[in-house]
Amino acid sequence: MNKLLVVTVLVALLALSAESFRVPREAQEEQQQGTLTTIADKVRGLYESTVSTASGYLESVKGLKLEEKAKNLYTDTSAVVSTYGGILHDQIYHLFYPQQ
Predict the structure, then answer these.
(1) Is the pLDDT of residue 19 over 60?
(2) How far is it, in rounded angstroms, from Cα 36 to Cα 31?
(3) Tell me, what DSSP letter sits at residue 68?
(4) In the chain, which residue ranges form alpha helices assigned H by DSSP?
(5) Ranges of each domain in the chain
């Protein structure tokens, strides 16, 4: 009877230990899937944060009316360059064809 009790206890302990070994493996598989999901979620979060920050910067730039300022600067610069380009053209022309 004692041997039967000892064998029963040993089998029960073996079954419990075997079951406890199986649970961490399943937990590791779930954790790996959870890790990949966590990484993907973090990447999505960083992407969304970057996009929202860039959108905020664009909105602040539009608020400063930089496009209008850039157009005005281009117009003024074009006028100045064409004026000085014409002066340079006249100087070179008179250098090659001097008046007598």
Answers:
(1) no
(2) 9
(3) H
(4) 2-63, 66-96
(5) 59-99
Provide the token pair at 96: 């090659």
- Residue showing tokens 């100087």: 91
Tokens of 21: 């070994």
Cβ burial 26-60 (10 Å sphere, 16+ → b, else e): eeeeeeeeeeeeeeeeeeeeeeeeeeeeeeeeeee
Going by the DSSP 8-state scheme, the letter that residue 98 receives in this structure is -
Handedness of CA 29, 33, 34, 38 (dihedral sign): positive
For 15, the token pair is 């079954």
pLDDT tens for 50-92 read 888 888 887 877 777 777 888 899 999 999 999 999 999 999 9
Would the pLDDT of 42 be above 80? yes
Q: What is the chain's alpha carbon radius of gyration, rounded to the nearest angstrom?
A: 40
The pTM of the whole model exceeds 0.70: no
Look at the block and give the residue holding tokens 């079954």: 15
State both tokens at 91.
């100087």
